[in-house]
Structure formats: C-alpha cells, structure tokens
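Attaching the record inline, Q. Sequence:
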Amino acid sequence: MKESVRIFRFIVIGTMNALIMALVVWLMMKEMSFDGDYMVANITAYLIAQIHNFIWCKYWIFPVENKKNSIWKQILLFCSAFAVAYTAQFLFLVLLVEGLDVNEYLAQFLGLFIYGGVFFTGMSSALASNTAIKGGQTS
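Structure, as predicted:
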C-alpha cells in the first residue's frame, strides 16, 4: 500500500476518532457531573476511541501479511504506540491548560494533532521494523 493511501486512511479514521472523543469530552464536561474536569474527560475519551481505532488500524490502515504475528503482538504494538502518543498529548494538554491558561476545549482539540502525529509515526515505525506490511511497501 502506498504511504499516501495509508495517510489518507489514517486521516479518515482519525477524524472519526476526533468526533468520538469530542462527544465524550463534551458529555463528561457539560452533561455529566464532571463539571470541567478536563483530565478525567480526556483519559476516558481516548480510551473509548482506542477501541474503535484498534479495529480500523488492524484491518484497514496498517494491515499485515505476516500471519505469525498473533493478536497479542499486534495489541502490544498498538498499545505501545498509543502510550507514547497519549503521553505526549496529555503533557501538551496540561501545559496548555495549566501553564498557558488555554481554554480546556481548545487544548483538547490541539492535542489531537500531537497525538495523531506521534501515533502514526509510532505505528509506521513499529510495523516497518517488526512485520511485513501488506503490499510490501512501507513508503
């Protein structure tokens, strides 16, 4: 698969994930009793969106040919990329809100770009070094 196709697919799924996360954050911060607790809303939103994200990454964005890779190895690679990307995003979020007094909703939105860039790079690197990506092309 060409890298441009992979990037397009990542953007499509990333947009869907952003909508899921925005809905969860809004529900938790405005409609539920979390009344502005942006950190709890952020953690919950990302965890919910990752279930959706894993399925699409596994079968559509980063499909692998190597059938020797068990589902557990794929989950480990996905969770590793998620942990690094989420940590970068969460630190960025806290810096914006607590350090620079940026609006909590705007900071959540800006954090999506940090998360997306780090996650895509992490998944691409992990798969390129550990498996054969379907189609034989990594770039």
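The radius of gyration is 16 Å. Confidence is low (pLDDT under 50) at residues 132-139.

More tomorrow.
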